[in-house]
Amino acid sequence: MRKGPEEGFILLFRPRQSRRVGLAVALLAGALIAASSAAGQTTDTTTTTPEPGAPAGAPPVPTGVATILPGGKASVPAGAPYSVARAIKAANKIHRRTYIWGGGHRSFKAKGYDCSGAVSYVLHAAGLLGSPLVSGQLASWGSAGLGSWITVYANRTHTYMVIAGLRYDTSPLGEWLNQGRGPRWRYTLRTGTGFAVRHWDGL
Fold first, then answer.
1. Phi/psi class of residue 99: alpha, beta or left (left: φ > 0; alpha: ψ in -120 to 50)?
2. Is residue 50 part of a domain?
3. Per-residue pLDDT reduced to its tens digit, 27-51
């Protein structure tokens, strides 16, 4: 080692020493890269990001998510179970029907529907309900908790559902584009606060 004019100290190595030093530096760099990669990993590298506007505690949205088409009806996502496809098609069939209080209670077929009539109609088409139920009864339908494909929210005064990530509701509450009352695919989700949350096992 000798002192240079401006650099301070300069290290001088013979050719063999230079090769050894270069090899040592390369090994050290490789070890540091491997260590940093290992430090950034955990036993489970899968993370789940909730969908914007999804209810608190919502499960991961299924791979195939329905979308609202230009006419206001919903698409059937690829890979949706048969009963889910039936539910979406049924909801599309009564989409934009008139809101009639008590509509759909005596029979699944009606000129118009209220909240429980619309939800009952869709569940029946999916093969998940035998006869129409009022909203208070739907609060005990199926099993407690969120479904992966279909979730029903119900209390004594109102009910609505979420199918393949889309809200189907007779109420425009919380919707940025007010489509009025009656069975509609809504552009926003609701928090579900104050509602019993129900699903059908396997869906």
1. beta
2. no
3. 444 444 433 333 333 333 222 333 4
Q: Both 90 and 189 in a single domain?
A: yes
Whether residues 108 and 168 fall in one domain: yes
Q: Which tens digit of pLDDT belongs to each residue from 149-187?
A: 999 999 999 999 999 999 999 999 988 888 999 999 999
Reported pTM: 0.69
CB 123 within 8 A of CB 87: yes
Interacting residues of 195 by C-beta distance below 8 A, sequence separation 6+: 139, 153, 154, 155, 158, 159
